[in-house]
Amino acid sequence: MFFLKKMLVIFIGSSFLSIGINFFLVPFELLDGGIIGIGLIINYLTGIQAGFSIIILSIPIFTLAWFINRSYFYNSLHGMLFSSFIIDLFAASHTPFIHPVLSSIVGGIFVGVGIGIMLRFDTSTGGTDLLAQFLSKLFKINVGFMIFIIDSLVIALGGLLISKDTFLLSCVTIIFVGLSTSLCTWKNRHKVYP
Q1: How far apart are CA 181 and CA 112, in angstroms?
Q2: Angstrom distances, CA of residue 19 to CA of 14, 23, 62, 106, 112
Q3: Is the dihedral of CA 103, 106, 110, 113 positive or negative?
Q4: HSE, side-chain direction, 13 A CA sphere, residue 41
């Protein structure tokens, strides 16, 4: 029963994440933060699929997790692999639906809810979400806030490499990712992750 519940959470969270990325962020070359944001930067600059890049970029963090705390490794590996697969599966769905500013807001909400759902049930997409869990436990602050800090650094890099518009709209995106993730994990703010 536990395994089925976890798989359902990963499926729902990954679906929200993929919808946010493919339907709202990618059509306007917007970024999320963290490993996903770096994967999107690689996609925009080279055409390499974002999900594949996320898997490759996550290897060092998962290696660290294997040696520091294997429960992080086990709780996030399947989330990272499945969400990367779903991101690439829906990668052809890049038709813009709404204005870029609204797209950055709605995309941020979808991505934040997807990440938040998984974190609430002790899983994640890995990558910097996994790093944020480490740091959240270490500094005793909300994991959504820690994700926001890391995401800000990635968005700054994307602004330098892609465009000023990407930077500004992606700042809006990560604000909504951080808020949505924080709201989804709020009752877990004192929880010590395994």
Answers
A1: 5
A2: 9, 5, 25, 10, 11
A3: positive
A4: 23
Q: Which amino acid is at 87?
A: I
Q: How confident is the prediction along the chain (194 residues), in pLDDT tens digits per residue?
A: 677 888 888 889 989 998 999 899 998 999 988 888 899 999 999 999 999 999 999 898 888 888 877 877 887 888 888 889 988 988 776 666 788 999 999 999 999 999 889 888 877 777 776 777 778 888 888 877 887 788 788 888 888 888 888 889 999 998 898 899 888 887 654 444 44
Q: For the residues of 61-128, what is the DSSP string, one character each?
A: HHHHHHHH-HHHHHHHHHHHHHHHHHHHHTTT-----S-HHHHHHHHHHHHHHHHHHHHHTT----HH
Cβ atoms of 134 and 191 within 8 Å: the answer is no
pTM for the full predicted model: 0.82
